[in-house]
Every structure is written in structure tokens, then in C-alpha cells.
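[User] Once you have settled down, look closely at the record that follows, and write a paragraph about the fold.
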Amino acid sequence: MEETVFALSSGQGRAGIAVIRVSGDRARLALETLSGRAVPPSRRASVRRLADPGNGEQLDEALVLWLPGPATVTGEDMAELHVHGSRAVVGGVLDALGTLEGLRLAEPGEFTRRAFANGRMDLTQVEGLADLIDAETAGQRRLALAQAQGALAARCSEWRNRLVRALALVEAEIDFSDEELPDGLDDQALSMVMGVAKEIREVVASGSRGELMRDGVQVAILGPPNVGKSSLLNRLAGRDAAIVSDISGTTRDIVEVTLDLGGVPVVLADTAGLRETDDPVEREGISRARARASASDIAVWVVDLAYPTPPVWPEELQAARRVVVGNKGDVGDTSFPCGLVVSATSGSGMEDLERFLADAAQDLAGGADGSTLVSRVRQREALADCLACLDRACEEAWGEAALAGEEIRLGLRALGRLVGRVDVDDILDVIFRDFCIGK
């Protein structure tokens, strides 16, 4: 018998209500022991007095729920205790549960891991739930919610069914070659495989958008020293995130600020001024600035319009979007060719810069409508593996049916890895380790 686990599933700290979950074969016993009564009717809230089973001291008056499996989030018997959210009440109830034989505090992500093990969720839904817990913008919420509700899993199931039908046709050609079979079975199979491959190719092509929505669009603020990069960052952030000084080379390390622009997370990076220098510390800062620029999705080159010089983009820069921003537009030469003219001091032109960043970020991340299916590298790579197998199957053109059939099987196996049906033991710990306790 697997151990029964319990944990606080709502947030830590003082609150009006806290939810404690118990999952496993002893959930009924735990609820009856603390309440001193039989469990209430299934899935019907009931007010119960909770007491310490050791000394009978009242712990709280709580709203309790009895949720018999397998129709629960974990697939096991569950009990929920909705107690008052003070540390004393929560701590007392958790301590009391811990004294019961066969019960222990859940590890981070254990409730979700049991849901996965019991077939209540697949791996893409697990990842979606993890992203939903961490979502900070509307776009991240929509993308994570779609995955948690099985959007990608549903597409995978559809693809799998079509590939299984195609494989059945190929196997029929192989196993019953001496029988009279309907004409065109191989053409039907090829058409099915090509159709699935086309749809997967479209999803893989948009995979980087989902990853940007999940991880944030990277923006590097570049330029020579003392052009106002740090002031620009502070103005965009609405706070003093970076040190501003008239002394050249003040910024040595990268200063990051994350913004929500139109529902898309945008990570701004203030970097060291790019110039030649003998200072080893500043050289290291410049090296980091160049490395960050090479990994950026949007590059902003800042020009001091009081002393304007043309931008010198780093050779390694691969950013999909670039813009030259003239700073100090309130006192400088506004005729200098720039994409945008702003003043970090007065704030003029900052709305235009924010709008540019928001539009570029939404374009790169596929908007904030949650329509992108793939949000992780693991998902994109599994689909890419499947696509490669299907492409090889199509290249066989059924000239060698056995080889084509084997490639379809390998493609189905790649889809299985994506949703967690095969070969996933080595990645489970990585996925679940970042979950909070109680989920």
C-alpha cells in the first residue's frame, strides 16, 4: 500500500482560508480521526470540528470534503480540509496529520506526480500546470492554461490515431500481400502520414514562439558608455533598478528587469557600455554585454543626441528586431537619424518605445492569445523527432513498406515520449523538482 500524503495546497502565510489536501488509501481514516465522525457524503461540503487525536484539543472548525477516487485530481481517495489560514491553525492540523500512522508530508509536486502515474494527467498537462503556477502575464496564463487543459495532448491523440490507421494499412500490405486487397491502400496511408507531418511541421515552426512566451522575450540595451542606457532601463521599469552615474563604465554586470508588455513577458537587460578599455573588470562587463546581445531577441542601441555617433552593432548580434533610440531628445540634435527619439530624464517619447517593444514582443511570441501549443524545448524536440521519422517514411514512398512502417512506429514512439507514455523516467525528476509542496 502506497503511503498517504498530505500538504498545504494553498499559499503560505496568513490568509482567510487555507486548503490542506490528503491523498491516498488512508485519507478517509485521516478525516474521520480528526473530525471524530464518519466522512460526509461524497463531494458535499460539511462543517466539522477538528481535534488533535493525541489530546483531544480542538484545532479549528473547518469546512471538509470527502472525495473518493478514482474521480479525483490524483486518481486516489482524497480529503480536503478548508481551515482558517493562520499559521497556528495550519501548523496544528499538519502536525496532527503527521502523527497518524501511514501518513507523511508530501514532497514537492507529489500530488501532480500521482495524478500522472494514475493516468489523470499526461506529461504536457503536468508541464502546463507547472507553468500556470508560475505565470506572471496574461499571455503566459493563456498558454499554460491551454496546455494544462490538454490542448497539446488532444492534438497528439488525434495525430496518433491517424498514424495508427496508416500503420495498419501498411501492415496489411505486408502481411496480406498474397490476398486480394482493395486498391490504393498504400496511397491512403501515405496521404495520412503526409497530412500529420504537415500539421506537426507547422507546430514545430511556431514552437519558439511558445518558448518566448514562457521564458520571456530578451531585450538587450546596447551602446557606448554614458548615453543613458541605465536611465532608460529605470524609466521603463518605473524604479531605480540600475545605478546611474556621470562616471563612464559604471555598469559592469548585466542588470535585468522583467516587464509585462501587452501580456508578453519582456526581460530588459542593461549592459556595459561598448568601447575599448584597459580595465580588466570593465572588459569582462563588455564581454558579457556582447554575449547577452548575441542571445537577445530585440536589440536597442542607445545614442546620446547631445553627442551623436552612428551605432556599431556587435558582429555576433543575431536579434530578430533592432532599433536605434536617440536619448536626450529634449536637449540634443533630434535631426540625427534614429528609429525613436526619447528622453529618459523627462519621459518624452517613452510611450513610443514601450509600444515598439510590446508590438515586437507580441509578434515574436505569437501574440497573447494562447494559440501556440508548444512551450518547452523538450516538447519541440519530441515533435521534431516524430516529424523526422514521418518524413523518412514518406521518402520511402512505400517502395519498401517494411521500412516505412518502422519509421511510422518510431514516430508514434516519439509522440509517446511527448505525452509521457514511454521512456520518460529520466526526465520525471527534472519536471517535478520545481513544483511547490501541495501540488
Remarks:
- The chain has 14 helices and twelve strands.
- The radius of gyration is 29 Å.
- Residues 4-117 form a domain with the Gyrase A; domain 2 fold (CATH 3.30.1360.120).
